[in-house]
Amino acid sequence: MLAYKYTDKLASLSTNVSQDAVDSFIHKGASSTGRMIAVSNGIDASQFDFSMDERKVKRSELGIFNDTPIILSVGRLTEAKDYPNLLTAFSLLIKDNSLQSFPQLFIVGTGHLDGYLKNMSKEFGIDKYVTFIGQRDDIRQLMCAADIFVLSSEWEGFPLVITEAMACKKIIVATDAGGITEALGDCGSIVPIKDPNSLSQAINKMIKLSDNEKEILGNKARERIIQTNSIEKIIERWMSIYTQFKK
Known about the structure:
two-stranded parallel ribbon; alpha/beta; Rossmann fold; 247 residues
């Protein structure tokens, strides 16, 4: 941010990945109103489409029955992602005897909190429901296998992983951190940061949606990403910016 503060006047316009980030930079004096705009990163939505066949294959590989809810979270095992928040929320969820079957939580990622988080899941008595699967190159397939995607971050810029999950028609529960709300819109559930009770309740609510409700919400999420964060739409955004300065 310091570099922006001293170089802001050298550029006609600067960009950042979310409006939240733009507002933060302006508030902290790293840029000024009108000199920075939000242009989020885009994804190739065709690479993150849902496949029922891949869902069945991946669930079989994971040893999970079709009627068992899978909750998926993807991200570095660092403070920013606030996995203690997710594990606390999940422990509350497991204690809820209104669920028809116990969900399974799969956490994808590596980081210096790996050991700490695994110990935490044991202390909560939820380790048989939580699986840390490290670094993976089959994220789309895991998203197909999952029912709900959760992002429990304390702070964010603009997490591409949530747009990938939306493109894969996932039901999303996320915290109100950084550009998450901008990405998700009304296509999922947003809860306050560092509030495991609200996070647990939101996940519980999403698990209990009917299959039809889940399908409608998933389709809505994918359509939103195609319209706002597909590579094609982001290219259009950049071309519009370049055209303005070419005149």
